[in-house]
Specification:
By secondary structure, this protein is mainly alpha-helical. The protein is built from four helices and no strands. The two termini are 25 Å apart.
Length: 72
């Protein structure tokens, strides 16, 4: 793996930085998969569907994402 820097909203950055390492790893995996999908020129609907499935498979539910954004 390699590291890149991307700009995000301040709220997202703070929530990510406050998240536990396990949650950060899950988010990194999902973002990595999302970027791979974009590179492969898939439709946005296909990308969203795949990301939702992968997130659920990895235990990252909408509730967890909401909690990360609200509480960090």
């Amino acid at each position: 793996m390699e590291t890149i820097a991307i700009q995000v909203d301040t709220e997202v950055a703070k929530a990510y930085q406050k998240a536990e390492p396990q949650k950060q790893q899950k988010i990194q995996s999902i973002v990595n998969d999302f970027l791979k999908s974009i590179i492969q020129d898939k439709s946005l609907d296909d990308i969203i569907q795949e990301m939702q499935e992968q997130a659920q498979d990895r235990g990252l539910t909408q509730e967890i994402l909401d909690e990360i954004l609200q509480n960090g």
